[in-house]
Specification:
The complex is a heterodimer of chains A (about 230) and B (about 190).
Chain A (H helix, E strand, L loop, with lengths): L27 H15 L6 H9 L3 H6 L1 H16 L5 H10 L32 E2 L12 E4 L18 E11 L2 H4 L8 E9 H5 L7 E8 L3 E3 L4
Chain B lengths: L2 H18 L5 H14 L2 H13 L1 H9 L1 H5 L11 E6 L4 E6 L8 H4 L4 H4 L1 H6 L4 H7 L9 E6 L4 E6 L11 H7 L2 H5 L6
Parallel strand pairs in B: 1-4, 2-3
Classes of the chains: A alpha+beta (about 230), B alpha/beta (about 190).
């Protein structure tokens, strides 16, 4: 999905701000959100990590920037709980009010009307892990030049916008893995071959690139087409 | 009320509702806090780095197949299905990011710091890694190659930092104390 989360190459976010002696969790609620998300996965309410990542991508974009990492997770969690009808918006609003909170502050969650806006598939749990054995052989091998697909992607994808329509070279093959673009939408695991692809700074950023820099991405075979200079 | 407070209340509201449904318990949350504060953290990665510095055969194995090399350590917390380790040398500097979310090798480095998850690092480091490294105090010679690894699938990356000078003859335990989290993300040089 083309959204605020796809940060690579964007400008305007200022310097990297660091904190010394940072704890694993700054406040208890952050650990609560972390635990609840893991509990939903274990209880098969959130069906897989791809579905969860997509739920986080679908939160309010201002909240994505302002609420921090666990605030984003909170939004993704609330999206999934409401979409799966585990909780209702009304349940949550009443409980927030009873705790002295308000429901007019910026809220991250933007639940969809149906469990998945892009698919009518019944959401099913994915098996453990994401590495899968498949029969089809890999189309590419190390050293091959490829070009990535270009254009807007409506649903979940792991091909960042900054690396679309770019030429790169396969540097490693990783056999087959669950395909996030289908798994996030309940369309099955559809495992695909995965490759590490190296892109030069000049290919990605043109004249703005710093010298002698490369960015590597792990990309699924459907994102790639063969490319040669001839 | 601050945003954080509103988020804290909303998180608590959802937690109470899920506790009523038996989907989560206070004990689980306390257990998570304890686990990530005490057991899962950058110390795990530091063990791997120290062993690699001390033992050339282990280093070769770690760079060849990080997943298999870490298996005997039985690190708990945060699954890493495939760990790939990249070695920093005087010629090549590696660093890790996840521009799309915040993927990070939890089992070896614990939970990521805030800056790793914030927009500034995620947006800038693929486009201007040398400048970002400079802000971290890492000034690389122009002759060096910079390789950024954007974790866009389930493979997780860790950097094997260069061994600091003056560490000859140290034990593995002493070496592990020299290894920082940031050096294993690739934004710090150890000296």
């Amino acid at each position: 999905m083309d959204g605020i989360h796809d940060f690579g190459g964007a400008s305007g976010y200022g310097p990297v701000v660091r904190e010394s002696h940072e704890p694993a969790f700054h406040e208890r609620w952050e650990a609560g959100v972390f635990t609840m998300v893991n509990a939903l996965m274990a209880a098969d309410i959130c069906h897989n990590v791809d579905q969860f990542r997509h739920a986080v991508e679908r939160i309010n974009s201002q909240a994505y920037l302002e609420h921090g990492y666990y605030g984003r997770w909170l939004g993704g969690l609330e999206n999934l709980l409401i979409e799966a009808a585990i909780l209702s918006q009304k349940d949550i609003e009443e409980k927030v009010s009873s705790l002295g909170g308000n429901n007019v502050a910026l809220i991250a969650a933007q639940p969809a009307a149906s469990p998945d806006v892009f698919s009518d598939a019944v959401l099913r749990a994915s098996g453990p892990g994401a590495f899968r054995k498949i029969v089809s052989s890999a189309s590419f091998r190390s050293g091959d030049w490829v070009k990535t697909l270009d254009g807007i992607v409506p649903g979940h994808t792991r091909l960042p916008a900054y690396a679309r329509g770019k030429k790169g070279q396969i540097v490693e093959s990783h056999a087959a893995w669950v395909y996030p673009d289908s798994n996030a939408h309940g369309l099955g695991e559809q495992p695909q071959h995965l490759y590490t692809v190296a892109f030069s700074g000049a290919q990605l950023w043109g004249d703005e690139a710093e010298p002698d820099t490369f960015t590597h991405l792990d990309l699924f075979e459907p994102y790639l087409v063969a490319f040669s200079d001839e | 009320m601050s945003e954080t407070t509103e988020q804290a209340i909303r998180a608590e509201a959802i937690e109470l509702l899920l506790r009523e449904k038996g989907l989560v318990s206070e004990a689980q949350i306390d257990g998570i806090i304890q686990q990530y504060n005490a057991r899962t953290g950058p110390l795990n990665g530091a063990y791997l780095v120290a062993r690699a510095w001390a033992d050339a055969a282990f280093k070769a194995a770690l760079l060849q197949d990080g997943t298999r090399a870490m298996e005997p350590f039985n690190f708990s917390g945060g699954e890493v299905q495939k760990l790939v380790v990249k070695e920093n040398t005087p010629q090549t500097h590696n660093l890790v990011v996840c521009t799309l979310c915040s993927c990070y090798p939890w089992a070896v480095l614990g939970l990521p710091p805030r800056w790793y998850k914030d927009p500034a690092y995620r947006s800038r480091v693929v486009k201007e890694p040398r400048k970002v490294l400079g802000e971290f105090g890492v000034n690389l010679p122009d002759s060096s190659l910079v390789k950024v690894w954007d974790s866009s699938a389930e493979i997780r990356y860790m950097v094997l930092p260069q061994r600091p000078s003056g560490s000859e003859g140290m034990s593995e335990a002493e070496l592990a104390e020299l290894v920082t989290r940031d050096s294993m993300i690739g934004v710090e040089l150890l000296d």
